[in-house]
Design brief:
Helix content of chain B: 55-70%
Distance between the termini of chain A: 53 Å
Structural class of chain A: alpha/beta
CATH class of one domain in chain A: Alpha Beta
Number of helices of chain A: 12
Pfam families (chain A): Peripla_BP_5
Radius of gyration of chain A: 23 Å
CATH architecture of the largest domain in chain B: Orthogonal Bundle
Strand content of chain B: 5-15%
CATH superfamily of one domain in chain A: Response regulator
Distance between the termini of chain B: 79 Å
Number of domains of chain B: 3
Protein name (chain A): Branched-chain amino acid ABC transporter
Order of helices and strands of chain B: HHHHHEEEEEHHHHHHHHHHEEHHHHHHHH
InterPro entries (chain A): ABC_urea-bd_UrtA, Peripla_BP_I
Largest sheet of chain A: 7 strands, mixed
CATH topology of one domain in chain A: Rossmann fold
Keywords (chain A): Signal
Shape of chain B: flat
Mean pLDDT of chain A: 88
Number of helices of chain B: 23
Radius of gyration of chain B: 32 Å
Number of strands of chain B: 7
Oligomer: heterodimer
């Protein structure tokens, strides 16, 4: 009994000591601004996310060379949520409560974002999310710098309809929330454009699907019935390589049945021989091949930082770049790192994007971006074959889904709501569902 | 009554659009396919003012490639093809190969090859050296699918005169369904002098389709054409027959089209069954390759090795490393990769056995957890050494493409080779187990360890070697899988469940069971997939196996005798 008491006392002492240490840590940290980086460095998503971690670190290094923000150096705090969705929430909590970061750059998959969302809302943190996603969300604490469906999927389908004269569509995707929601939006959109239900084929495959033989052969058959056919692919991650290999082996040429992908960028292509894929398409807001002084400089910096001239740049990297620069501007504008002040200052912030235009943060926490359609080239890059005239403002709530038709997000007064119903003039809280 | 009216309206509408399409098509394609047309030679004078040399005209057309507008580029391609200049064809090929550049500094169109320092530039017509440019200071002229097709169609018309019959056939194949009068003239000209029956067959089909698509053709011409194409599996034939069936106002023609379509559908169905069977066999062979190593370590030795998938991954990475060592040897490097992968995985396997599993024999739960830990260590080690990014393994030329048996049925070479390879590995392993001393010892130890030891077999050594053998085969499987899927840290992860499924279903300790299980699961999966979708097919197969194991816990082919009772 006595020993136990003693140990309890010791524990209390240790607790006080630990508190003192973390307090002193806080004092020391007062002359730096802490930036949390919440990207998986191990597990399935490491392939995509580790690049974004490097991008944030590069941006921080560059900013510090310029003297930091408001005279303070930036200090990165990197954690590894290991592609484990609940761990994302825990790590986010740790970043905000223990490490006291002022902002978090992170997440890739929608599941991970949805798992972090309640944490940043509860603790009033700030999250910059750099990946294209399915929309239907707008949070006070999150800034979405990737594309919403109307900035990627809809313009891509417009290109197929108007420029290529496609009459039949295969919507092929991996079985999870992003493809399912995107395909639902696209199906409604295509039907509104007069495409019959029989001319739309929808197919879902599991994560990491590697045996594409029968699906590709079915697509070929579907496309061989006289009407011009295209595949709209929301196939995610690893599954793309075997899919494209099968396409080329079965001789499905881009001039017969083009595939337009929303999740295939320069990085995904760096794993395959793109010779047989020339002419297949992708829709993004950025391509490495875009020739602008900003982009040239960015690529050069990236190669210097990573020490490998063969490493490619891609769209989520540009989204990270824009998000980071916007945050720096907003902090300087607000003269504070306080979440509410920065979030307020963010709206209306403009920074140059890498494709020669200007990115603007809108009231709904989504960006205005240009939409580019690129064709795969034999060197693993994309050549831009179509581009929207100006920038397209991101739409948080799709106009083509019956449930979200009347919803808008507006984080300025007087609305100040993530899903405001314009018909009933009521606010449904931060997120729908 | 209103329904009949509606039908008539629909028919009218359909035929109306079809006519509009056919009449619009030549206008669209006009001139796109004129490169080899006989009158191509004397046309340029129309578009070029007199007194301007051919070369200058060509340079003017080339300058149009500076534009971003694809219509302007299409026009330039057309004028180059018609220019009759000797460099015309080579320049279009360069455009296709991305070797025609827009030099941004000099604002000119040049030929260029990429080198370490950037671009080495050449004049497009004289091919003289005209300096160099930095990598991002010049960029290939961008073409899109439409232009690519335009150039390819132009090339196909030229290729109709190619001395190689295979090239002629391929060219004719590309032109099937094309209704451009210039193309048809070229096809007719070729038909008259073509000697090769295969090429002639394709040209006949192309011309017959043109007859059926031609609104001005006579009924008996069309009937003859339908008769001629009745056996063809070409998708274009089926489409045109369907259109005729829906649109023709002559009953005789509709009947003929209907009969021909039925014949085609019957043949198509037969080939679809063959297709499914091939896909099933191919999936089965992948399962067999992944599972066969496990059939040894789990089946024969009874070790639950969760790191089996990672041993496959190591084999795949070995393939990648071998290709890095021999950058010019893509065609044969697989032959080096096979033994290398076997050795790497076998050595790692033996280390795992000696270092971990040896202490855990008879404790399956702990083995499971320990080997799962090993699998995570191996995965992360690969991430640290090779980076988490996927690595690309080059597929050799002889494994790319497909064996085209007819227009709707083809066997992809990579799958074909892997089926054969899986069977070779299987029988080689049988041979090792049945005919070698090691095989005898392995069987002895797995049947009764005590007696085997009493007979003087060093069971420890046999354990290590058996585990090495199973692991080595996993490595070989990795070489094959590297041709089909990603080479990345998660490669093994994807196959471990499937492997256990196959071994358990087939019956632990029975290689023939593994073979049967792999192929039957593969084929079952491919039969269900078109009906239920890939996700559901996988679930259904899994549920089936669970139920099956409930009925027959020892799998398809249970081991009999005393060894099984242990």
């Amino acid at each position: 009994m006595k020993t136990k008491k003693l140990s309890l006392k010791r524990l209390a002492q240790a607790g006080i000591a630990a508190g003192a240490i973390s307090y002193s840590g806080l004092v020391m940290a007062a002359d730096t601004i802490k930036v949390g980086v919440l990207h998986s460095l191990s597990g399935t998503m490491a392939i995509s996310e580790s690049t974004l971690k490097d991008t944030v670190l590069m941006m921080i290094e560059k900013q510090n060379e310029k003297g930091g923000v408001m005279g303070k150096k930036l200090e990165p705090v990197v954690v590894d949520p290991a592609s484990d969705w609940p761990l994302f929430a825990e790590k986010a909590r740790q970043l905000i409560t223990q490490d006291k970061v002022d902002v978090i750059f992170g997440c890739w998959t929608s599941v991970s974002r949805k798992s972090v969302l309640p944490v940043v809302e509860e603790l009033n943190g700030l999250l910059f999310y750099p990946v294209q996603y399915e929309g239907e969300e707008s949070s006070k604490n999150v800034f979405y710098t990737g594309a919403a469906p109307n900035q990627q999927a809809i313009p891509a389908v417009d290109y197929l309809l108007d420029d290529l004269g496609i009459e039949r569509f295969v919507l092929a995707g991996t079985d999870y929330v992003y493809p399912r929601t995107t395909n639902k939006i696209l199906e409604a959109y295509l039907q509104s454009k007069g495409i019959a239900e029989d001319d739309i084929m929808i197919n879902y495959t599991p994560f990491g699907h590697s045996d594409w033989q029968s699906i590709v052969s079915r697509i070929k058959e579907f496309g061989g019935e006289g009407k011009k056919t295209a595949v709209v692919s929301t196939i995610n991650g690893d599954a793309n390589v075997p899919f494209y290999k099968e396409l080329s082996n079965q001789g499905m040429d881009a001039s017969d049945i083009p595939v337009i992908a929303f999740s295939v960028g320069e990085q995904e292509l760096s794993g395959i021989n793109t010779g047989p894929l020339v002419g297949h398409l992708a829709a993004w807001n950025y391509f490495q091949s875009v020739y602008t002084p900003e982009n040239n400089q960015f690529i050069e910096q990236w190669h210097d930082y990573i020490g490998d001239d063969d490493r490619v740049t891609n769209d989520p990297m540009e989204a990270t770049y824009i998000g980071f620069n916007m945050w720096v501007k907003a902090v300087e504008k607000a003269k504070s790192t306080d979440t509410d002040k920065v979030a307020k200052a963010m709206i209306g912030v403009e920074t140059p994007n890498l494709t020669g235009g200007t990115a603007v943060m809108n009231k709904n926490h989504h960006l205005s971006k240009p939409v580019l359609i690129g064709e795969i080239q034999d060197n693993g890059q994309f050549a831009v074959v179509s581009q929207t005239d100006g920038v397209v403002p991101g739409d948080a709530w799709s106009d083509y889904l019956p449930d979200s038709k009347n919803l808008i997000a507006d984080w300025t007064d007087p609305v100040n709501c993530g899903n405001y119903n314009t018909k009933t003039k009521t606010c449904g809280g931060q997120t729908a569902q | 009554m209103p329904r009949v009216l509606l039908l008539i309206f629909m028919l009218l509408g359909a035929s109306g659009t079809a006519v509009a399409q056919t009449s619009a098509a030549p206008a669209d394609d006009a001139g796109q396919t004129t490169m080899a047309s006989p009158e191509g030679e004397d046309r340029p004078s129309e578009s070029v003012a007199p007194g301007v040399s051919k070369e200058e005209a060509l340079r003017t057309s080339l300058a149009k490639f500076k534009s971003r507008d694809f219509d302007v580029k299409a026009e330039a391609i057309e004028t180059i093809a018609r220019s009759g200049h000797e460099r015309g064809e080579a320049l279009l090929q360069a455009l296709l190969d991305r070797e025609l550049l827009h030099d941004l500094a000099g604002d000119r169109i040049v030929l260029g090859k990429q080198s370490e320092q950037g671009w080495a530039l050449r004049d497009p017509i004289s091919e003289e050296d005209v300096g160099s440019a930095e990598a991002r200071a010049a960029r290939p002229v961008i073409i899109n699918n439409r232009l690519r097709q335009q150039i390819r169609d132009l090339k196909s018309v030229t290729a109709l005169a190619n001395p190689n019959p295979l090239a002629r056939r391929e060219a004719a194949q590309r032109l099937v369904g094309n209704t451009d009068p210039v193309v048809l003239d070229a096809l007719r000209a070729r038909q008259a002098e073509e000697a090769n029956p295969l090429v002639k067959g394709v040209i006949d089909t192309a011309l017959n389709i043109a007859v059926l698509r031609d609104p001005a053709s006579q009924l008996n011409e069309r009937l003859n054409a339908i008769d001629a194409v009745a056996g063809s599996l070409e998708p274009a034939v089926r489409n045109v027959l369907r259109d005729r069936l829906a649109q023709s106002d002559a009953a005789a023609e509709r009947n003929a089209a209907d009969r021909a379509l039925k014949k085609i559908d019957l043949r198509t169905e037969r080939y679809e069954t063959a297709d499914t069977l091939f896909f099933g066999l191919s999936l089965g062979s992948v399962l067999l390759l992944a599972a066969i190593g496990l059939a040894i370590t789990f089946g024969v030795m009874g070790v639950i090795n969760m790191a089996h998938g990672e041993l496959i991954m190591l084999g795949a990475y070995t393939t990648f490393v071998v290709q890095q060592i021999f950058p010019d040897g893509h065609e044969w490097s697989l032959l080096v990769a096979l033994p290398a992968a076997f050795l790497v995985s076998a050595v790692v396997g033996i280390v795992i056995e000696r270092g971990v599993i040896r202490f855990l024999y008879g404790r399956p739960l702990e083995t499971l957890l320990a080997t799962f830990g090993v699998s995570l260590i191996l995965q992360q080690a690969v991430r640290v050494i090779f980076s988490p990014l996927n690595r690309s393994v080059v597929t050799p030329e002889w494994m790319s493409g497909a064996l085209q048996i007819n227009p709707i049925f083809s066997l992809t070479y990579n799958r074909l080779y892997i089926i054969v390879f899986a069977l070779i590995v299987f029988f080689a392993l049988q041979l090792v187990l049945k005919k070698t001393r090691l095989g005898l010892q392995v069987r002895a130890v797995s049947q009764n360890r005590g007696t085997a030891r009493a007979m003087g077999i060093r069971s420890e050594r046999v354990n290590a070697l058996t585990f090495g053998l199973g692991s080595g085969i996993a490595g070989i499987a990795g070489v094959a899988l590297a041709q089909l899927t990603n080479v990345g840290p998660n490669l093994g992860h994807a196959y471990i469940i499937d492997s256990f499924m196959v071994v358990v279903f087939g019956g632990v300790g029975n290689l023939w069971g593994t073979l049967t299980a792999a192929f039957s699961l593969g084929i079952a999966n491919k039969i269900i997939e078109p009906m239920a979708g890939a996700v559901l097919a996988k679930i259904m197969v899994l549920v089936f196996i669970i139920l099956f194991i409930q009925r027959k816990p020892r799998g398809l082919f249970p081991q009999r005798g005393r060894a099984a009772e242990e």
